[in-house]
Amino acid sequence: MPFARHDAWPYLLAGLAGLTSGSPQMPPNPPAAAMQIDGERSEARFVVRMRLPLKTQGTIPKVSGEMVGDARSGWRVLVVADGKSLEVKGPKWMGRSTRSPEFLDVDAHPDIRFQSDTFSDEILHEGGPVRGQLTLRGLTRPVSLSLLPSACVHPGRDCDLQVNGTINRKDFGMTAYPVTVRDDVELRMRVRLLAPEGASP
User: Helix, strand, coil % (nearest 5) of the chain?
Assistant: First the structure.
C-alpha cells in the first residue's frame, strides 16, 4: 500500500483527534444581535400631576440605546434619554421648575436611563411587565414598567415599542413642591429600532 502523501498528514491527525476525543465540539452560539434605537423616531415622556386639576407633560426627543437578544433566550433593552433636550408644555415657569435641581436636575444629571431585565419573546409580542433598573437624578432604583401589545411581525422594527409606568418621585430624591405636586409621575417611552445588518425585511 503506498504511503500517504506528506501534505495529507494534518488531515489524518485531525480525524484521529476527533475519534479519540469523544463527541465533537460544537461551535459556540453566535452573540445575540443588537438592534440600535432609532433616535429620530423614538422619544420619552413623563406626566407630572398637580394637586389642582392641572398636569405638566414633558417630552425628551433625544433617545438612544439598544435591544439585544433573540426569541429563544429572551430580550434586554437599554433606553437612554437625554434630559437636556427636555421640552415642557405650559408656562415657562413650569419648564424651569421641572428642569431645576429641585426636580429632574437635568443639567447635573442629564442621562435618564432604563436597563431592563431579560423578558420573554411572548411579552415582546403580547405585552406584559418589564422589570429593570431606572436611573434618574443619579439615583438607580428597581422599577416595573408595562410593555403594550404589538400588532406587527417585528416589534420595534415594524411598529413602535410602547412602555408605560408610574414611579414615586420621592424614590429619586424629588421631594420639592409637596403642596402642589403629586408624588406619582407617569413615564411613557416610544421606541423604534433599526434593523441589524443582514436582517431580512
Answer: 20, 40, 40
Each residue of 48-73: pLDDT tens digit? 888 777 788 899 999 999 999 999 99
Number of other residues whose CB lies within 10 A of the CB of residue 52: 8
Say which residues have a Cβ less than 8 Å from residue 135's Cβ, sequence separation at least 6.
111, 112, 113, 114, 115
Burial of 188 (0-12, 13-18, 19+ CB in 10 A): middle
Rounded Cα distance between 150 and 145, Å, is: 15
The dihedral of CA 178, 179, 183, 184: what is its sign? Answer: negative
Domains in the chain and their CATH numbers?
Answer: 31-191 (2.40.128.110)
Q: Mind listing the pLDDT tens digit for each residue in 96-142?
A: 988 999 999 999 999 999 999 999 999 999 999 999 999 999 999 99
Cell of 147: 410593555
Residue 173, SS3?
coil
